[in-house]
Amino acid sequence: MQFLSRFDIIALMMTPSFWIGVATVVFVTLLVYWLLTRLIAFVKRGITTWGDKHPTTNRMRFILTDMQAWHDPLTRLNNRGALFERAKILAKQCEQQALPFSVIQIDLDCFKSINDRFGHQAGDKVLSHAAGLIASTLRTKDIAGRVGGEEFCVVLPGMTLEEAAEVAEQIRERIDSKEILIKKSTTLRVSASFGVSGAQEKGNYHFENLQSTADARLYEAKQRGRNRVIWQDHVKK
After folding, report:
1. 150 part of the active site
2. Which of 6-15, 63-72, 80-89 is modeled with the greatest confidence?
3. Among 95, 150, 163, 169, which one carries the catalytic annotation?
4. Count of C-beta atoms within a 10 Å radius of residue 215
5. Among 19, 86, 102, 229, whose Cα sits 20 to 30 Å from the Cα of 186?
6. Residue 92 burial by CB count (10 A; 0-12/13-18/19+): exposed, middle or buried?
7. Mean pLDDT of the region 83-97
């Protein structure tokens, strides 16, 4: 292969055809850049116009963002932050209207052993299964959320402590009676422990206090053998 010498290159650069070629390359490059920027701007305007003409698209985008920000991705229940924020609002409303207000704390029994024996994928199936049973037991105005690894919280506006204990018992029975298919030919049955508190016990509508009381009763349920509901001094199994 023959290479041009430095003098040949200088001589070539002195010819008009060389600069015409350079100018052509620069012109084509700028033209392509201009066309690409126009195309991108056109596409963006088209997307914006579509969103303006189709409000449903914007609403769906907002709903999706809201779901991602406020919901636990595995169980589709409220995450801890969303549950606490919504619960505080409901507690204030119930207090202003002199309505009962109750809280249930739920913890799946021996959940760590499920992860250890069957793996985290099986654990995720158990969590999702339990969350579905919890949510399907509640009224539309109730709130459920995942507040820890295997821990859930339920907020029941307008419901007395005794009524909330009955709801907790319904959830307990449903979880205890269902088998979960965690992998081919392998099913698993789990249980859960419950603690329940109510604002009218002491006239205290502070959600975090109620949640703490329910959590203490949940711990007592664990100590008494698990798979039970504790509310005040009553035990239901």
Report:
1. yes
2. 80-89
3. 150
4. 19
5. 229
6. middle
7. 97
Lowest mean pLDDT among 81-85, 138-142, 185-189: 185-189
Q: Which tokens belong to 234?
A: 């009553």
Q: Give the confidence band of 64 by pLDDT, cuts at 50, 70, 90.
A: very low
Does position 188 have pLDDT exceeding 60, yes or no?
A: yes
Best CA proximity match to 211, nearest among 153, 124, 140, 135: 153
